[in-house]
Fold this sequence. Notes:
Blueprint: H1 11-14, H2 20-29, H3 36-43, H4 55-75, E1 80-83, H5 105-116, E2 125-129, H6 136-141, E3 148-155, E4 182-187, H7 194-212, E5 216-221, H8 238-248, E6 256-260, H9 266-280, H10 296-309, H11 322-325
Parallel strand pairs: 1-6, 2-3, 2-5, 3-4, 5-6
Helix pairs in contact: 2-4, 4-5, 7-8, 7-10, 8-9
Amino acid sequence: CVVFNANDAEDKYISLVHTKNHIKLIKNIGSNKLDSQRRSRMAAKYNSIYFNEGSSEAAYLAAGSVIKVAEDVAKGELNSAFAIVRPPGHHAEADEPMGFCLYNNVAIATSFLLNERPELGFKKILIVDWDVHHGNGTQKMFWKDPRVLFFSVHRHEFGSFYPGGDDGSHVMIGEGPGAGYNINIPWDNGQCGDADYLAVWEHILIPVAKEFNPDMVMISAGFDAAVGDPLGGCCVTPYGYSVMLNKLADFAGGKIVMALEGGYNLDSLASSVRACVEVLLEERPITGALKAYPYESTWRVIKAVREELSAYWPILAAKLPENLLSRRTPQVQV
């Protein structure tokens, strides 16, 4: 690995996806004029947000670092990159921080490449969000943009899992020119693991990505779906993450930028990130095997998503064979 220091983001690039008022809010958090009580009162106005005297600096460094490595990969100076940053970004909306996220790091970097660096020739970007929570902020920022294929796989549980509501539903597919370019895979239950995620890769993401043919792959790499995470309740192993990433490396000549999102068990976070970095470095062959079949509910979700999107992606129109669907683990109650 080549290790870089963090870079500050410029307001003009943050403003590609965030409002001036939002930028002003984040900037003001770090003001010496604010004490901890006032910061706490400010944070209380938002959903799952924490502020301290270092929040502004951290937010600028996180966004700037993702911009920096995305540009370096786009220029061919790096083969791929992993931005290990905090705070995360995918919940941050245009004018509202939420879910520990202040600036939407991946969305800013994606807009930067598409709108500020046209000379690099990047016209289509695939964003894969495998954080256990829905990437509501990223979805809204590219809702009508066919240059961005946004794919989020997440616990949804019919809108009861954070961030809640209908935004993460499979029927939320984009609008206008962006219709069909927003793909949500909403799990009905927890406990989903390698077999469930890889079934979605094989029967939805990979076929659509081949048709889309992106110039770069950006990954909102949350690891709170990993085994042992206290918030996620899912069971993805380091092997599972390495296989998912390896399949994405077939696109865009391997130009992949990963940006850290959620992850709340330091051991599973570390082992999962390491597995991904080894894939990016092509350091060792991927070894392991699936030990289970997808849940019955997973096949239901896959079929519903394919049906919803088949008008936009004809490759999804074919029915899945029954002998495939029969390979399943019974539904569990959690």
